[in-house]
Amino acid sequence: MDRTSILGDTIDYVNELTERIKTLEEEIGATPEELNLLNTRKNFSSGSSEEMPTRNSTKFVIEKQGDGEMRIDICCATSPGVLISTVSALEVLGLEIEQCVVSCFGDFAMQASCSQEEGRSRVTRTDEIKQALFTSAGYGGRCL
């Protein structure tokens, strides 16, 4: 293929993708601004209309899945030792991590499947687990 046909194929493909985006927007009934796909916000404080990247919101989600098993989803600001303190908090609570995915790119994020360790007292309340993880991540006081 010569350069002209490669360029022509590329233009056709970009047009096809643009149409696909429009179709998907129509299906969900939202505009690109409403979706905020780039996770940005307008910088109104400086008087300019430039967009600035924003951080993900802090979240600590604990879901019981039956028979002592639970799913833990954490997203918070990265700080030194947050992974170690989180794993230590789970250990103190008698929860054993069965599967875990961790990301420290930008923010700290962790998704884990845990089960109650055999022979350990059961922590039955998700709000107790949430509070322990909230504190171990360096947030003082009560979590929301």
UniProtKB/TrEMBL annotation:
Keywords on record: Coiled coil, Nucleus
Any one cellular-component term (Gene Ontology): nucleus
Coiled coil: 7-34
Major localization class: nucleus
A Pfam family recorded for this sequence: bHLH-TF_ACT-like_plant
InterPro entries: bHLH-TF_ACT-like_plant, TF_AMS/ICE1/BHLH6-like
Name of the featured protein: Plant bHLH transcription factor ACT-like domain-containing protein
Species: Aegilops tauschii subsp. strangulata
Taxon lineage: Eukaryota, Viridiplantae, Streptophyta, Embryophyta, Tracheophyta
